[in-house]
Design goal:
By secondary structure, this protein is an alpha/beta fold. Helices cover 45% and strands 16% of the residues.
Length: 428
Amino acid sequence: MATTLPRHDIADLGLAAEGERRIAWAEREMPVLRTIRERFASDRPLAGLRIAACLHVTTETSNLVRTLQTGGADVVLCASNPLSTQDDAAAALVAGSDAGGPGIAVHARRGEDRDTYYEHIDAALDHLPHITMDDGADLVSRLHTTRAGQLRDIRGGTEETTTGVIRLRAMAADKALRYPIVAVNEAQTKHLFDNRYGTGQSTVDAIMRATNILLAGRKAVVAGYGWVGRGIASRLRGMGAHVAVIEVNPVRGLEALMDGFTVMTAAEAAPWGELFVTATGNVNVFREEHFRAMRDGAIMANSGHFDSEIHIPALRKLAAGCEREVRENVHEFEFDGKRLELIAEGRLVNLGAAEGHPAAVMDMSFANQALAVEWLVKNAESLVPQVYTVPAEIDGEVARLKLEALGVHLEPMTEEQARYVTSWQEGT
């Protein structure tokens, strides 16, 4: 444990040893980030940089912030969701690594209320960061609305998730965005793997942990067929569920249909389904008219970033006080002679009722984060306030390092093949 602890607000420092064990376990599955950390240790590309990170405080995130610290950055971390903090990981970060690494300032407690959540965001911004790292754009929003005086010192930021990118693109379109942001979520080595395989597996894992239901033969409804929805639908089908998809986008709806899923409206799905999972990044996907149509015992969960996809105020109004916790992380609402079940208070279910994504996919996502911060530092003077995609060379490097770590070799092109694909003279 570090002799001098950084400023912090966590649940229990006594959990540090368990957190350190779990962080080390996650690190085994994160060879790409480990390779980047080794280079950062010698190059120190982030020396003198202050970073405020608003991310899910997990064992995987712990490995990311330690990588940034190894690169020379002074990092403070707060939670991007009130239910996603792993208190033992937070304690381990504050205490410092077993190898004698200094502690990292953390402001996060699992289950914190809304006021504490924003107090922790303000504590992270009190660090006077040069770089922000977001999962949902709450740091960026706070800076632009209540702490605009700090914006002149911000060089850039990164955004981890789809919902945050949507918010930031809206800000950019309104010309409200005041500094450049790299949309890490848009990297192929992020959304094709983290969103699809990571969220798909961890969402199903959370539902099973919370409810212990049998998925085989069950009628499941997935709202949204972006990369997250694709992953959830695929894994539910793999467990034997009958899966229907709700979509507003005609191309995605057609894709879901041709992928073998039934496509329905929410009104059609409500009386049909037994399990409902939202993954849209929008609000009030399931609301009063759908709750009234759902069958007794229907289960609902949300895999979108915010707890607004299921209209919980309407559910509470219908139940009129007939609400109780029936299992850990499962609340039951009773009205009209039936019961509806809600997992993890409608918050991000894979972190509210389970451990989040497997470390192997977060390895690529957080490799993109670390390299995006390095890219921002190198290019800050030439960047303007807009949302940038991850440079192709970073995306390719992350994929190359992952394949290398897995012992997979790609087929090299012959000189003839390389010449053919870069010329126009040869045809049929």
